[in-house]
């Protein structure tokens, strides 16, 4: 009896689902919204609730409420508009590109702001995602280049929030070494996010060199396990970005700023042979500070949290 009684509701529900499935194939049926997180969602719910309560009141009450708001809120609205304009204008002015290269290291990833204002991310976990929220310009919600260091579900899980929060101009990831990616729920979620957020994505082999801007080059080098590390050159200043990987594959540039994990003891031998200008241990594994020569300026992100370097193409300084 219950099955027969539920048949009309089932038929209506099935018809609704079929209409939704059909209309979902239309252009612009789904438009991703970036940056709509908990505060915005709460504000939306409160606003809709307030409008619903006011609309349910008698017409006379709504008229009196509108007159009172028009009388009281007008001066406040003008003042608030001016204040918001000053704040937004000041923030926009302060966040203009300053003509220098900024490289911020946090967790196991790196955030790069080029002299002309482009945004590049070498994906990594830890504290890097909040760094973007604070450092990216107010009205810039696009990462120009996003580098996925390897094709594991761990790397995709770390990178997925970036794709969900920002538009991605180009995605670079290591080539697939034989066969296809193993099907997983994370791979499905990653591919869906790539389809919604990424403009251009391709497998990028080690040795690929990208001219980002005049005097600023990015070279993708091999990392242990078939992954990618990034070498960023700005005049004589070079950043070796391996993140959670070690330096046992290849050799770093002498006198570079090296960012890598210290899990492999062989990495220390590589660094002794090619002494870096700065050595930043990523927040992964157990950094080998005990064996680092005293001449090395070594920083452990597990202690420092966030480290930022600024270069004008001739010199480089640590600003935090």
Distance between the termini: 72 Å
The strand count comes to: 15
Global mean pLDDT: 81
Radius of gyration: 26 Å
Main structural class: alpha/beta
**Low-pLDDT regions:** none
Q: What is the helical fraction, as a range of percent?
A: 25-40%
State the order of secondary-structure elements, H for helix, E for strand.
Answer: HHHEEEHEHEHEEEEEEHEEHEE
Q: Biggest sheet: strands side by side, in what order? A: 6-5-4-3-2-1-14-15
Outline? globular
**SS strand fraction:** 25-35%
Number of helices: 8
Largest sheet: 8 strands, mixed
Question: Can you put this structure into words, describing what you see?
Answer:
With 320 residues, this protein is α/β, with parallel strands linked by helices. It has 8 helices and 15 strands. The strands form 2 sheets. An 8-stranded mixed sheet has the order 6-5-4-3-2-1-14-15. The chain has a 7-stranded mixed sheet with strand order 7-8-9-10-11-12-13. Strand 4, helix 5 and strand 5 form a beta-alpha-beta unit. Helix 5 runs parallel beside helix 6. The longest helix is centred in the first third of the chain and has 36 residues. It is globular and about 80 Å long. The model has no long low-confidence stretch (mean pLDDT 81).
Strand-helix topology:
Elements lengths: L1 H22 L14 H18 L3 H36 L6 E6 L2 E5 L5 E4 L5 H8 L6 E6 L5 H13 L1 E7 L11 H13 E6 L5 E5 L2 E8 L3 E8 L2 E5 L15 E4 L5 H8 L4 E4 L16 E3 H4 L1 E6 L4 E3 L2
């Amino acid at each position: 009896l219950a099955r027969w009684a539920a048949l009309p509701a089932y038929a209506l529900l099935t018809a609704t689902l079929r209409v939704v499935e059909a209309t979902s194939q239309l252009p612009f049926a789904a438009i991703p919204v970036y940056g709509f997180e908990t505060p915005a969602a709460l504000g939306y719910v409160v606003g809709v609730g307030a409008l619903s309560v006011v609309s349910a009141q008698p017409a006379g009450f709504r008229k009196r409420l509108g007159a009172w708001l028009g009388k009281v809120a007008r001066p406040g609205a003008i003042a608030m508009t001016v204040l918001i304009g000053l704040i937004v204008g000041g923030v926009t002015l302060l966040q203009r590109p300053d003509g220098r290269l900024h490289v911020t290291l946090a967790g196991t990833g790196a955030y790069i702001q080029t002299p002309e204002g482009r945004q590049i991310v070498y994906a990594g976990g830890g504290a890097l995602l909040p760094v973007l929220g604070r450092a990216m310009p107010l009205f810039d919600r696009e990462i120009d280049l996003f580098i996925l260091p390897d094709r594991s579900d761990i790397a995709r899980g770390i990178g997925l929030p970036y794709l969900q929060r920002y538009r991605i101009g180009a995605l670079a990831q290591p080539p697939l070494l034989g066969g296809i990616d193993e099907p997983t729920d994370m791979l499905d979620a990653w591919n869906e996010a790539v389809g919604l957020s990424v403009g251009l994505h391709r497998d990028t082999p080690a040795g690929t060199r990208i001219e980002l801007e005049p005097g600023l080059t990015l070279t993708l080098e091999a990392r242990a396990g078939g992954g990618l590390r990034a070498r960023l050159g700005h005049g004589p200043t070079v950043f070796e970005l391996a993140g959670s990987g070690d330096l046992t594959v290849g050799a770093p540039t002498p006198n570079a700023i090296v960012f890598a994990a210290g899990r492999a003891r062989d990495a220390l031998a590589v660094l002794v042979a090619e002494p870096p200008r700065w050595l930043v241990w990523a927040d992964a594994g157990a950094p080998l500070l005990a064996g680092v020569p005293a001449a090395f300026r070594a920083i452990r992100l597990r202690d420092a949290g966030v480290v930022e370097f600024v270069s004008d193409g001739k010199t480089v300084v640590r600003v935090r």
